[in-house]
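**Polypeptide and fold**
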Amino acid sequence: MQKIPNRFWGLILAAVAMGLFTGGAYAQPQEVVVGSYINKIQDLDFPGNKYDIDFYLWFRWKAEGGLADYNPMESFEIMNGTINSKVAQDAMQIGDVMYAQARVSATMNENWHMKDFPFDSHSMTVNIEDNSLTTKDLVFVNDENNSKLGDEINIAGWDATDFSTEVITKVYQTNYGDISQPSDARSDYSRYMISMSIQRQSYGSALKLLSTVLLATAVAFLAFVVKPSDLDARFGMGVGSLFAVAASAFIAAASVPDSGVMTIADNVHMVAFAFIFTSLLVSTVGLKLEVNGHEELAYRIDRYCLVIFPLGFFGWVAWEVWKALA
């Protein structure tokens, strides 16, 4: 058998190595660096579960392989909102790297967590994905060092804080109705996430919102200093307080989404209703006692209630507010 020269073995090994190298390179997804700068956050709409945001978004990538014709300005989408406008700002080549930037205005859908309203704070996210390329072809890389929260954001009554960006993999467990794919098919997309929080600058709005219910309940408790037999004054205070608290409850309900979540404001109004209604029951019992000749017992009950009711109600309100702010 004729011996194969060593140089041929060398050529074969080199070809195999080159094939493995190139095949492995093309099998790997290509990286696209993504960054953002938040310009404005405005029109917070809590009942409508939305807000408007204005921000700059940029991409850097190498135009090779599967990204040879890549145009991120055409292919990115916001998954939890609607893009209102998208204006390209810059597009250039820096060495062997492509760069594109756009100013984006969008309306975001946000599931506000209103449990602590009106002492609430909220987290907000903007989720960005490519609309066609999965993680087999493209992965985002977070440009964390250059992504910022603008210093001219002015949200009336709120401060924006805790800005951060990250990249995750979002998995969609569906074949999107394509029967050529198995029913348990899945798609993995690279997702760029912008996150931030908003906190109330002060609690003046909370005081304004709850002042009516607190004052009306205090007026209802003043009925305990009136003789039970003075029907007009005694019952008029309680009934008037009920109407005032009901009006305040409607105003508070209009400020939050229509959901089954009981906010602090809702709890305060419900407990106020209970205390006022109980005070009317006490007034009824006191009137009955006075009519039956037990005036001293009726007056003693009023004195106890004049201390217990305000302490119980306002102490509970203070506890609820302290838990929300802790």
Observations:
- The longest strand covers residues 30-45.
- Residues 118 and 208 are 10 Å apart (CA to CA).
- The chain has two domains: 29-200, 204-325.
